[in-house]
Structures are given as C-alpha cells and as structure tokens.
Design goal:
This protein has 11 helices and 10 strands. It is an alpha/beta fold and 322 residues long. It starts with a strand and ends with a helix. The protein has 2 domains: 212 residues, TIM Barrel; 100 residues, no CATH class. The longest helix has 18 residues. The strands form 2 sheets. It has an 8-stranded parallel barrel, surrounded by 5 helices. 40% of the residues lie in helices and 16% in strands. α2 packs across α3. The radius of gyration is 21 Å and the shape is globular. The chain binds iron/sulfur cluster (SF4) (2 copies). The site of one iron/sulfur cluster has 9 residues, from α8.
C-alpha cells in the first residue's frame, strides 16, 4: 500500500514504543510499522541496539529511533538498519548542520526518518524543505497537543515542500485519521498504549478505503480547504476562486497551469472527457464527488474508479514537481 525508501508498508499506521524493551507483539501484522526505541546513543552502543533489534521478528515493517551519540555512532547504527531493512529515526537535536547529518546517514543506505516537535523550531517549513533536499525519507512530527489545529499544520508543511510526513496525533476514529491524511500526511503514528484491537480495525478500514478509492490520503478539493495536491482535481482557472491563491504558492501563472495539466495528461487515460464540464478528465473532480458525466467517460474507456484516482495522484505529484 505504501513504499517509503526500502520499506514496504501494509498500511500507514506506525506504533511507537516509548521503551526499547517493551513488547509490541500485539501490533505485529496489524500496524504497518513498529518502531522501537528510543535508544540513547550516549548510553547504549550500536551493537546493543543491533542485539535488541535482532530479537524482534514482527510481521510488520520494523524501525527504531535514536537520540544522542556522535556522528560515527549514528552512521554505524544506520548501516546496521540498512542491512536489516529497518527504518532508523533520528530525533532532531538541533537544526544547525542538519543537512550534513541527514546526508551522512543517507550515505549509509538507510531509510531515514527525522523526528521533530513543532515547538522545537519557530517555522517548520524551511526545515522541512531542507530535509527534503538532503534526502530524508520521512519527517515525523509530534502534533499531539494541537488537537483540531493539527491538520492545518500538516497542510502548511506539506504545501511548503516536505518529505513524506508521519504525524503523531490524537486519533480516535476513521474520520480523525482522514482529517490528517487528507491534508498531506502519509502516515500516522500512535503510542504503544493504543488499543491493539482499535489499531487492527483502523488499519483494516484504511486498507479497504485505499482499495476502494485508490488513494488513501487523497486531498480535498482546493475550494474545500485541500492542500496543493488538490490541484489535480481543479477546473481550468476560468473564474476567481481559491485555485488562484494555490497557483501563487506554487509560483506558476494560470496559463502555465493549463499548459502543464494538458501536457501531463496528453496521451494518458485522463486525456478524454467528451461530455464532461471541460472536455477532459484532467479537469474532473474527486471520485467521491458523485458525477454521472465523469463516470460515463470512465465507463466508456474502461477506467476503474480506483485507477482514476491513482492517475490523479500521479498527476498531483507531477504537477507539483514540474
Ligand atoms: S478550480 Fe474548481 S476545483 Fe479548483 S478551487 Fe476553483 S472551483 Fe474549486
Ligand atoms: S464533469 Fe463532473 S467530475 Fe468533471 S468537472 Fe464537471 S462536475 Fe466535476
């Protein structure tokens, strides 16, 4: 369902251990990722971490988090993580020199998550961009105290340019999870105190949702408060609407947007659209918005609804990186 670095995740839920020795077996096979730690490299050696990790054989992807330590310890630990296909997560000690630290760890071949609390830095956006450029695979944000403000922060950081986002937040049901995922989060992390039955239920419902709509963290339409990925569902900019502000953020003109969308969909299954509002599926709405005109085109061209959304996901990625 989700690939990040060399990790293949069955679903976007991660369980975070607060204690390296705790037994997370009850989440094995239900959470997409199980993360042990945090290990303090000023107190334990990379070999001790290796021994602890080697005792775990969950049916979920496995990772661990570290703090402290010298660069040499970090890179040795990262090499061990890479050899075993584990995620290594580094808690951000400071923001200066972070690019060099990320590059050094990435050179070891490891899939890397960087964890940060929003109160650790004034504005996370430049840091998120820096981490993305340096090659971090995940930015792990702890937004537990922000309640209903968390989705807005996720949108702001996602729109500013960031690595895939894993968000630690309070999630009590499917809608809470969707509120975070639809703003640009790729993963949700939960404490190991979460109810294993709840985690298994949420993981299952997210997988079924993904199978049904083809894009488990699809954005809302821009005019419904969605993040920039929502431009994949936008109409041509023919009226005064929130798309114009989104285009300003991306730094392209309305004409460039039209040209770019047409070029990116030309010759793809999103090109046709006879009978739709703007003559091409390139401009059509999310599959969750009922529309018989779009659905008639999908039927005519044999495009399944989940395939349509996968194509829109690719379009969103290409629009934002072009
Ligand atoms: S272009 Fe269409 S979908 Fe996009 S924000 Fe404007 S009205 Fe909404
Ligand atoms: S045809 Fe339907 S899906 Fe396409 S833009 Fe119009 S309302 Fe949206």
């Amino acid at each position: 369902m989700l690939k990040i670095g060399y990790l293949n995740l069955d679903n976007p839920l991660a369980i975070i251990s607060s204690n390296g020795s705790s037994d997370l077996g009850s989440f094995s096979g239900s959470a997409g990722l199980i993360m042990l730690g945090r290990f303090n490299l000023d107190e334990v050696t990379p070999s001790e971490i290796k021994r602890t990790m080697d005792r775990r054989r969950p049916r979920s992807a496995l990772g661990f988090s570290v703090v402290g330590g010298e660069l040499e310890d970090l890179t040795e630990t990262a090499k061990m993580a890479a050899q075993r296909g584990h995620l290594i997560e580094v808690e951000l000690p400071r923001t200066d020199g972070i690019s060099d630290l990320v590059r050094a760890i990435k050179n070891s071949g490891a899939t890397l998550s960087v964890r940060v609390r929003p109160d650790a830095v004034d504005d996370l956006r430049p840091l998120a961009r820096e981490l993305k450029e340096a090659g971090a695979d995940i930015l792990h944000l702890d937004l537990r105290d922000l309640g209903s403000g968390a989705p807005k922060i996720v949108k702001k950081i996602s729109d500013g340019g960031a690595p895939p986002l894993m968000v630690r937040c309070d999630v009590g049901d499917f809608q809470d999870a969707r509120n975070i995922l639809s703003m640009g989060a790729d993963m949700i992390s939960l404490s190991d105190e979460a109810d294993p039955e709840f985690v298994a239920w949420l993981a299952d419902i997210l997988k079924r949702f993904h199978d049904l709509v083809g894009w488990y963290n699809a954005p809302k339409h821009i005019c419904s408060g969605g993040d920039l990925r929502g431009m994949a569902f936008c109409c041509p900019p023919v009226k005064n609407c929130l798309l114009l502000g989104a285009l300003k953020k991306v730094g392209i003109s309305p004409k460039e947007f039209v040209d770019r969308k047409l070029a990116l969909t030309k010759g793809t299954p999103l090109e046709p659209g006879d009978g739709t509002c703007f003559g091409s599926l390139a401009w059509c709405c999310k599959i969750t918005k009922p529309c018989f005109m779009r659905d008639a085109v999908l039927d005519r061209h044999g495009i399944a609804p989940d395939e349509y959304m996968r194509l829109k996901k690719k379009l969103a990625v290409d629009l934002l990186k072009a």
